[in-house]
Task: inverse folding
């Protein structure tokens, strides 16, 4: 939650330690560290127009050497919309103009839970363990009236489409972080490991209302992703103007996406095997780095 952010650091020239995916830089969020002993926390609730609600609850229990924390962030958003489209085609002999009126609605709900603990073994050794899960439900629907006209604006065909998409997604994240500082200011050793996985199922139902009848179709999608990241870093300063940064990193990640297409024929759903798609991707990246930097 935003209330747990202590500072935001923009790194415009990141080192290889951060493994930035883009070239413009990265944003480093530093979270608040609770130092007060005992139980403390905060809660927040916001509401907006159009059925938009957000809430969060953050709790910490500090017993000195160990700080336990638990967080909850919830979101509910509903909305209605509409759009209009008029398209003119100069290469079509039949439908020169296409007119579409669309009415949309959505309902999105998210509930994220975080649990963890920070162990302060001594002033120079700290270990953090945490787990988070975030189930999300997303329901989108729209009704579209499509009308097809010739060049003289005479209606040639029209169809009304009912489209609904129901998506359920769940993600889980595991984190371990170790920090070792030394007597020399600026020298530190960090060991971080994160494992994240997510899975989503989506059913898209399509009903086409033609002048001479009704046809139905379904698109079923299942997607899964995982990401394992281990990183060890060591920083050693030489005075105020130079330092060495070195470390190792191991990334193992992948995804799998399945898509099925069904048609409603003879009073039952039948899979269209010609439109099935399976995409599997796996990747491993192992690297060692070292850098010596000097300020002038």
Result:
């Amino acid at each position: 939650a935003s209330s747990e952010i202590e500072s935001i650091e923009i790194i415009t020239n990141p080192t290889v330690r951060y493994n930035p995916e883009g070239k413009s830089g990265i944003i480093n969020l530093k979270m608040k560290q609770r130092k007060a002993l005992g139980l403390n926390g905060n809660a927040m609730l916001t509401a907006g127009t159009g059925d938009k609600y957000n809430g969060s609850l953050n709790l910490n229990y500090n017993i000195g050497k160990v700080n336990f924390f638990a967080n909850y962030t919830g979101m509910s958003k509903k909305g209605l919309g509409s759009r209009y489209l008029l398209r003119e085609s100069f290469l079509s002999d039949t439908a020169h103009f296409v007119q579409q009126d669309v009415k949309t609605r959505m309902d999105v709900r998210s509930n994220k839970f975080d649990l963890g603990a920070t162990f302060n073994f001594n002033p120079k050794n700290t270990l953090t363990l945490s787990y988070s899960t975030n189930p999300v439900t997303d329901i989108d629907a729209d009704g579209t009236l499509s009308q097809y006209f010739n060049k003289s604006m005479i209606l040639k065909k029209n169809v009304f489409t009912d489209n609904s998409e129901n998506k359920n997604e769940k993600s889980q994240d595991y984190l371990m972080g170790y920090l070792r500082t030394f007597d020399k200011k600026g020298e530190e050793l960090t060991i971080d490991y994160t494992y994240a996985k997510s899975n989503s199922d989506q059913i898209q139902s399509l009903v086409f209302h033609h002048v001479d009848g009704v046809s139905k179709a379904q698109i079923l999608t299942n997607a899964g992703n995982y990401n394992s990241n281990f990183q060890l870093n060591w920083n050693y300063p030489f005075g105020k103007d130079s330092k060495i940064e070195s470390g190792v990193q191991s990334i193992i990640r992948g995804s799998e996406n399945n898509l099925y297409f069904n048609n409603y024929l003879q009073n039952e759903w039948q899979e269209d095997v010609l439109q099935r798609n399976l995409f599997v991707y796996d990747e491993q990246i192992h690297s060692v780095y070292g850098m010596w930097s000097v300020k002038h």
Summary: The CA atoms of residues 195 and 203 lie 28 Å apart. The mean pLDDT is 88. The radius of gyration is 27 Å. The chain is about 0% helix and 80% strand.
